[in-house]
Design a protein that fits this description.
Strand order of the largest sheet: 6-5-4-7-8-11-10
Distance between the termini: 48 Å
Radius of gyration: 21 Å
Bound molecules: ligand DWN
Number of strands: 17
Helix content: 25-40%
Largest sheet: 7 strands, mixed
Length: 409
């Protein structure tokens, strides 16, 4: 393979070839169909540092721009999650009024919107997508409309100060020039500074066969091993971890500049667990490939059979669904429409497979027999909402690890 590991420049091993994929969040008008962009999506892993990564990534400017379709504010449970982390920052790190907190990829608010609400004025959000940047600015958050790298980091130090806390929630995995980002984090942090990062956890993706976490925006899916390798390379100390249920299984990484902070039991537990898995060579990655193929056959058969007799709709026009629908060749023959509450997605069509996306009113007026959970990672929130608002009289289904009905209310 001509592309080398983005961390250590070693050779990459192919894990799964998902075939042609469109831009995961590029929801289309009918007039865009003939000009749609596709790339080949191949998941790989580095045999040396175990960084799981896409072989090819479309130009980031095609993904993050003035019409970025995803707004984090659409999920109440994620808002609660952001608010809780903001409390933790005050309680655990005793933020002083001048302690700068920087958050990258803060989208339409993120954690720093809660810091701002608590009058912590030394905050800064950085996001390359103009529309979500504008949303944050409207809320009175201090913002920079940039991609984060060593140059942005230098600019922040020059214009503001070094940072006490650097946050990246579901963002680090999106940035292919990872070396420049780590350089930027290292040079931005104070000597007692902490970097807190969350992303989908690789071993959840492998075990749950949640291959839909893999799409253009997720250039990397981190494990403790690969994150630890990156931190070591930049003189940073990954000393603690917190396993999270968000987004179907995520890991929060606590990284200090202070190298003498001891590793916690949590760190040792996950680090050793992964070491044991890797002692069997590439077996977990080979199994993942086979499981993806099995899952594809299983979902396709299930949907083909059910769609003969029933109307199926999908709940949540997610980036994840772009991977599923394109990998499994699912279109309006199986899924009649998708419902979503995000204004930028409504009345558009899904990338690649061109399934129409309608608003919530349409959903309530055109109840499907079966509802596919495109936003399965928000199933708790969705079930609570739908239990009170909407009786499906039918069934909810998911694809992971196998296609199945999951009516549990
Ligand atoms: O990393 C990323 C994650 C955090 O968010 C990004 N690369 C992009 C995005 O991924 P996604 O599109 O797969 O994210 P979600 O959070 O699974 O998207 C949920 C979608 O479902 C949104 O479009 C909003 C919609 N939704 C809805 O219509 N009704 C969500 C909920 C909870 C609802 O009740």
């Amino acid at each position: 393979m001509s592309v080398k590991c983005r961390n250590c420049n070693f050779e990459l091993i192919e894990v799964v070839d998902f075939g042609k994929m469109p831009i995961s969040n590029a929801f289309l008008d009918r007039s865009d169909f003939s000009n749609e962009y596709f790339y080949n999506m191949t998941a790989t892993v580095c045999k040396n540092c175990y960084l799981f990564q896409l072989l090819e990534q479309p130009d980031p400017k095609m993904l993050f721009h003035e019409n970025y379709a995803f707004f984090a504010g659409t999920s109440n449970s994620m808002q609660k999650h952001f608010s809780e982390l903001s409390d933790e920052l005050f309680n655990k790190y005793q933020l002083k009024k001048d302690d700068l907190v920087v958050e990258i990829g803060c989208n339409d608010g993120g954690v720093i919107s809660y810091l701002k609400d608590k009058n912590h004025f030394a905050h800064l959000g950085v996001d390359p997508s103009k529309n979500v940047y504008e949303k944050s600015k409207e809320k009175g958050i201090n913002m920079m409309n940039k991609f984060f790298d060593i140059n942005t980091s230098n600019e922040i130090v020059k214009e503001k100060s070094k940072a006490k806390i650097f946050i990246s929630l579901n963002t680090l995995a999106h940035i292919s020039n990872i070396n420049s980002v780590f350089e930027g984090i290292e040079s931005l942090l104070n000597d007692d500074g902490v970097f807190i990062s969350e992303d989908p956890y690789l071993f959840d993706v492998l075990e749950k066969v949640s291959y839909d976490q893999i799409y253009d925006e997720h250039v990397f899916i981190f494990s403790v091993t690969s994150m630890n390798n990156l931190c070591n390379k930049y003189g940073l100390n990954l000393y603690d971890l917190k396993y999270l249920n968000t987004h179907g299984g995520s890991m929060r990484y606590y990284v200090s500049k202070n190298k003498s902070l001891p590793k916690t039991n949590n760190f040792n537990y996950f680090f050793n667990k992964e070491k044991n898995i890797h002692s069997e060579g590439m077996r977990c990655y080979d199994n993942f490939n086979l499981n993806c193929i099995k899952s594809k056959t299983n979902l396709t058969n299930f949907l083909n059979e059910q769609s003969n007799k029933k109307v199926i709709a999908s709940y949540g026009a997610t980036s994840k669904s772009t991977t599923i629908f394109n990998y499994c060749n699912i279109n309006t023959n199986q899924i009649k429409y998708i419902t979503d509450t995000t204004p930028t997605k409504i009345n558009k069509f899904s990338p690649g497979t061109h399934i129409p996306i309608y608003d919530y009113d349409y959903f309530t007026n055109n109840k499907p027999d079966i509802c596919f959970l495109g936003a399965w990672n928000h199933s708790n929130e969705i079930f609570i909402k739908e239990k009170n608002n909407f009786s499906l009289n039918g069934k909810w289904m998911t694809h992971t690890p196998d296609a199945m009905f999951i009516n549990d209310f």
